[in-house]
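Need tokens for this chain, all 104 residues.
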Amino acid sequence: MRSGRIHGSRGVAALVALASVSALSVAAGAEGDTPVQFEGRVQWIAGEMLTVATDDDQSISVDLAHVPQDEYQRLRNNDRVVVTGSISSAQSRVVATSIQPVEP
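Here are the structure tokens for all 104 residues:
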């Protein structure tokens, strides 16, 4: 499976559409997960949840349960990050595998 890179409003619209479809598709297993990668700014982080705002003001919920804690423990509001993961077929959020800061 090829990893997609999301840019601009068309990419985010596609991500939101995929998230909506994925939320409705409960029967699919892990093989139905859609890989994604996108960039944005940290809105907030609490425990194993992160919300990222894209450049066109879309908010995306990110599950951090599969990300090593050292990749996100120093993140603060407004830090730019690249999120890599998948849109789970069983959830309406991105399940991250990596959170990398973007250098200014």
